[in-house]
Fold this protein.
Amino acid sequence: MEKSINAIRFLGLDMVNEANSGHPGIVLGAAPVMYQLFTKHLKANPASSKWFDRDRFVLSAGHGSALLYATLHFAGYDISMDDLKAFRKTDSITPGHPEYGDTDGVEATTGPLGQGISNAVGMAIAEKHLRHRYNKKNLNVIDHYTYTLCGDGDLQEGVALESMSIAGHYALERLIVLFDSNDVQLDGPTSDAYSDDIKKKVESMNWDYQLVEDANDLEAIDKAIEHAKTTDTPSFIEIKSVIGYGSSVAGTSKAHGAPIGKEETEKMRKDFGYEYGVFETPEAVYHDFMSKIKERGEDAENEWRATMDEYAELYPKEFGELEHIIEKHVDVDFDKLLPHPEIGTSEATRASGGKAVETLSKAIPEMIGGSADLSGSTKVKGIEGNFTKENPAGRNVNYGVREHAMAAITNGLVLHNMKGFSGGFFIFSDYMKPSIRLAALSEIPSIFIFTHDSVGVGEDGPTHEPVEQLAVFRSTPKITTMRPAHAGEVNHAMRYALTQRNTPSAIVLTRQNVTVTHEVAYEDFAKGAYIVKDHKEFDGILIATGSEVELALETADYLETEKGLKVRVVSMPSMELFDAQSDKYRQKILPKGVKTLAVELGSPQMWYKYADDAFGITRFGKSGKGAEVIKSLGFTKENIADRFLKL
C-alpha cells in the first residue's frame, strides 16, 4: 500500500516537473485518500468507464489534476504513461484542470473552485431520484454513490455553500464529500482569510460530519467512508493533511501551485525509500491496483447487467424508460406534442415556455429541474410534485434563491444523463454564467431557460432589465442562444434543446405578451434565421428577434403604407444556428448589397456582422410600465422606420 501511495505521489511530481507547471501540494498530501477510495470503496469498472451504475468521483479541487490522472492511470483507465508525460501540453488528454470528455474517468470539468462539489450535488439528486423511481423490491438497478474531493478553497466559494445547503435540505444520503483539510491556500494560511467552524457549519446544513486527524491513517479513512455509507444525510469527512507532505515546503503555500523541482524530487525519492526513476513505476503497483479494482468492478457490472435482464422481463415499461436515459435517447413526436399555435394567439413567451416544459416532461421522464425561487414568474417548473427527501420521485427542484448552485447542479444532473433544466430571470444569468460557461466547455446539453428578457420588465427597473446579457451569451463558444419570437418558436427552441447531445442551450423569453404573427416549421427555425415577410423585389431588410419581430413587421407595414417601400422581415432566433448554415443559405436570407437594419432590445454590437446598422440599447434601462419604457427608449415603428430610411 505504501509503495502504491508513493507511486501516485512521485508520478504526480514527475508530471508537474516535466510540465514545469502544476500543483504538487495536493498530490503529496491527498494521495492516501485517493488510494483508499479507489482501491477499497469506489464501485467502478475502468474497462467500462461509462457503465451507468458506477460510483461517480468528482475532483472538485481541480488544480490537483496530476493526482487524479496518476490515480486513474494506475486504476486502469485509458490514460497511458505517454499521456502523463504530456501533462499540460497542447492537445494532450491531460490538461491543466480536468475536462469532461477529454480524459477517460473524468466525470466533470473542474478547476473553478466550488463547481465540482456542486456538480456532485446534481449527480446525487439524479441518483436519488432514479433510485426511488425505478428500483423495485430486490431489484436495485440504481445503487451507487457520489464522491467528491474538495479543498479549503472550494469551501470558501459561495456556489459550494449554496449547493451544500441544497444537499442537506434534500438529505442526499449517497453524497460523500472528502475534505482535504490542510489549512493552506495560495496566498498563505487559511487563517489569513477564514475562521469558520467547518464542523458547526456543515452540521447546521444537515450534513453528517466526521474528522480524520491524519490523511496517512488509511484505517481511519476506511472507517469514515464506511460510516458515511450508512447515514441518512449527506456526509462530510474532514481529513487533516499536510500540503506538500515530505517536501521542504511542506505545510506552506509554496507547495500549492509551483513545481517542487527535479532536484528536490530526487531527494524526496531517497527520503521516502522510493527507488524508482522519473516516470518509472514498479509492476507491483499496477498489480496492487488491478487486484483491488479490476475484478471487483467487473463483478459489480456483471451483477448489475444480470439484474437489468431480470428487470427487463418483469418491468418492461420502466426498463424501456431507463434504457433511454442510459442511452441519452429522446424518442417523442414533437410535432404531435407541441402543435404550432394558431395565428393570432397572444401570450408571453415565458407562458409558452412553461406550457412546453410541462407537456414535454410528461413524455420525457428524465426531464427534471426548476427555478431559483421564481417559478411563479418564470413558469419553469418540473412535474410530479416537488423533489424532497420524502418525495424523491418528484421532478420539480426548488432551488431557492441560489442561482449559481442551480446552474452547476443542472450540469451535474445532465452529467448523470438527465435532461436537466433551470429557470431564472435573464438578468440573473450573471450569477449563473461561470457554470453555464463550464457546460459549454464540457459540451453537455444543459438547458437554461431565462425570462424577463429585456427592458420590457418595466417597473422593477434597470437592476432587473438585461441589456448586455444576450451579447455575453452569443460571444460564448459552444452554446446555442435562442430568443423566440412567439409561442411557435418557443416550442421549436425546446425541441432543439432536448435533442442535443453536446451543446447547452439558453432559451430567452419575454415577460410581455407577443402575438403569433406567422407559422414557422421546425426545419426553418433550426437554421437560425428565416424570412417572415417577403416580396419578389424589396428595398431592404429588417432583422429582429423575440418580441421585436412583431415590431419589425409593424415597421415594414408602416414603410410600405407611408413610404411605398417593400421591406423583407427576417426572424433570427439564433445567431449560432444561422452562422452554422451554408454560405448559400445565409446569402439567400441576407443577400449582400441590400440595406439591412437589425432591431433588438439589447446591446447592438454583434448585429453589425449581419446589418448596416442596429437599433438597440447602449444604456441601462428605466423603471416604469414595460410598454412605456420600451417606447421611451425609441422602440416605435416610426423611429425604426426613420432609422431605416437614413441607411
The radius of gyration is 27 Å. Residues 347 and 397 are 26 Å apart (CA to CA).
